[in-house]
Design goal:
Blueprint lengths: L2 E5 L3 H23 L2 E5 L6 H8 L8 E5 L1 E3 L9 H8 L9 E3 L8 H12 L8 E4 L17 H5 L7 E4 L8 E4 L1 H4 L4 E7 L1 H10 L10 H7 L4 E6 L1
Helix pairs in contact: 1-2
């Protein structure tokens, strides 16, 4: 599928425009089917966007939010994506949304992945909106170059749900939705900021192996168009 670039002057402008687009998509889903689903990424990049979206006027009681990926850490850990969402998105009007976390209390990350797959199963498929980030090494979600389960994660025949990922540079073990869970979202967004990330994106759009830069799987094989929202 083709990717469409939406460039903005700064992060604040991007956050406002992306919040408008996502709110409109969620509202359309609610009107069409009665409910809406949103999967979001972590890291520092989406904070402003989360804050903008949290104030948008829509029927949040009909919206279910989950994470694209998560570290195997408790929800109150400063590195938790759950904490990021709680402090920035599940605020204002969006406090009425239903949030399904990926982290589960378990003896192992593998057991947590099984529990998370079960916990998120009611969301259904596909997501109405899925928003991905991108790291400087070309990873997205927790699809890391050299990751322990990368081949499985990127295989479109791998069932929808949560699997584990471990990789150098990833820190804690990760829980991540599979490619098959994300690639057909009705609105599929890649949210990146910074000139250096734009350079990484340009490299990813060129020739090369997906295992080297896993974001290539999204850019090349997603069955939904990819909207790229970028600001310097």
């Amino acid at each position: 599928m083709a990717a469409t670039m939406h460039a903005f002057a700064n992060g604040a402008e991007l956050a406002r425009n992306l919040a408008d687009k996502v709110a409109a998509s969620l509202s359309a889903a609610i009107e069409a089917r009665g409910t809406a689903t949103l999967a979001v990424s972590g890291g520092s990049t989406p904070k402003l966007f989360f804050q903008e979206l949290s104030a948008r006027d829509l029927d949040w009681t009909r919206v279910t939010i989950t994470l694209v990926d998560e570290r195997f850490v408790a929800a109150d850990n400063p590195r938790s994506n759950h904490l990021l969402v709680a402090e920035n998105l599940l605020q204002n009007k969006a406090t009425a949304a239903n949030f399904l976390p990926l982290y589960q209390v378990a003896d192992s990350v593998e057991d947590a992945a099984k529990l998370a797959t079960h916990a998120t199963a009611p969301i259904g498929n596909p997501f109405d909106v899925a928003i991905l980030g991108m790291g400087g090494d070309g990873h997205t979600a927790s699809f890391f170059p050299g990751g322990s389960n990368l081949k499985v994660a990127l295989d479109p025949s791998t069932p929808r749900g949560i699997i584990t990922m471990e990789a150098d540079g990833a820190g804690e073990p990760r829980l991540t939705f599979t490619f098959s869970s994300l690639q057909d979202a009705r609105l599929l967004v890649l949210h990146i900021e910074g000139e250096s990330k734009k350079d990484v994106l340009a490299k990813a759009e060129g020739a090369g192996e997906e295992a080297e830069m896993p974001i290539r799987a999204i850019l090349r094989r997603a069955t939904s168009p990819v909207d790229i929202y970028w600001a310097p």
